[in-house]
Amino acid sequence: MPCPAFEDLILEYCEDGLAAAQRGRVEEHVAECPACRAFLELQRELDSALREAIGKPEPSAAFHQRILRRVASEAEEPRSWVPLILDAVGYSAIAALGSVVIQVSFTPAQFAWLMMGASAIFLWWLSWQSLREGL
Amino acid sequence: MAGVGQFERLVEEYGTKVFRLAYSMLGDRAAAEDLAQEVFLRIWKGLPGYRGEASLSSWVFAIARNTCLSHRRREASRRAASLDVPEVRAAAESLHARADGHGAQLEMRDLLGRIPEKYRRPLMLFYLEDRSYEQVAMILGLPMGTVKTYLHRGKKELGALAEARRKEGAPLCRALHSKT
What pTM did the predictor assign? Predict the structure, then answer.
């Protein structure tokens, strides 16, 4: 076991993270302390094993171009007319129904049918709004 | 800021670092490239809303981290029934495919997969980023002191795991501990 006061310093020493004064302090201590010397050796081995295991994977040569192509294809994707047409149909139907309700007087049975029709249109519109994100 | 030329420069400047962040989380090169593409797509969509409150690098890496974490969550819920750690298995499989005789590397990758992710990610990035605390701190959005703490805790855990493996007779750990 390394000396607790030097454990992190030795780790940082192996990572080349210490200033010259602290490096000197670690080197002096390690020269006199077998446990810390063994810990330093172990950390050097671990450092080298980690370097080899993690390696230096680089993205492929076409990586940047693939990003730019993908973004370009998203940006240039033509907008579909379908949502606009369906919106227009839905809003026209709602407006027509509204004008009929205002201008004509109905029997209770006719009014009930009318309300069912209006509810059906409203439900269709709600479903359409939730689906249009995908178009 | 949303010009194509500026976006190209952004890809040029941050592309490799975003790839490495994704790689440190997934351990698989092809998957990391796909995820990095996803990150840049989000960056592109978010650019018109970027007001410069945070530095560009902080903004880019925040999007990158969030995208990677969302990806991890999706994968985790998709594979909730499995006890495997997918990125570690992917890394091990890719190494197996090209590395007969690289037992020590496989063993180290396996050990890396066994330490907590919050230590593994800075540890992997530290080596991917030429052992620079500053770069790891910038990519992970952490103070440099925290990066060092996580690195050291990760290494101590790796050392303990290697010691346990040595007792089981694993080759890398025998080599690592032969001098102790």
Answer: 0.70
